[in-house]
Amino acid sequence: MKYMLLIYTREDCWTEDERKECMIESMAICKELEAEGKWIASSPLHSVETATSVRVREGRRQITDGPFAETTEQLGGYYLIDVENLDEAIAIAARIPPAKKGTVEIRPVYPLPELPQ
């Protein structure tokens, strides 16, 4: 089953050295999962300051800078994995370095079998 692991943290909680170490540890986890056939994709995101939000209301497009929701923790990255079950997804999420400073939200990916792989 495919799961999206959404990583939320405060952007100001990382020193540059911690951020670099986090990236190194995260890349090692990705390589391990890829070797096991469980990794699909992952990436950190640029700062929330670079975000653009789009909403369409009554047929009109509204564009604003930044995220729409005000929150202390921001979406900072993601992993897309293919594992046997939720327990395995939880075990992987607990290993991701940002789980120590923020939250890793796990969501099953809705299958759309009619779409090409």
What report would you give on this structure?
The chain has 117 residues and is of the alpha+beta class. The chain has one domain: 2-Layer Sandwich (Alpha-Beta Plaits). Helices cover 26% and strands 35% of the residues. The chain is built from 2 helices and 6 strands; from the N terminus they run βαββββαβ. The strands form 2 sheets. Strands 2-5-1-6 form a 4-stranded antiparallel sheet, with helices on one face. Strands 3-4 form a two-stranded antiparallel sheet. The protein is globular and about 45 Å long. The two termini are 14 Å apart. The mean pLDDT is 90.
Task: Please outline the helices and strands.
Blueprint: E1 2-9, H1 16-35, E2 39-44, E3 52-57, E4 60-65, E5 74-82, H2 86-95, E6 103-108
Antiparallel strand pairs: 1-5, 1-6, 2-5, 3-4
In short:
This is YCII-related domain-containing protein. The chain has 117 residues and is an alpha+beta fold.
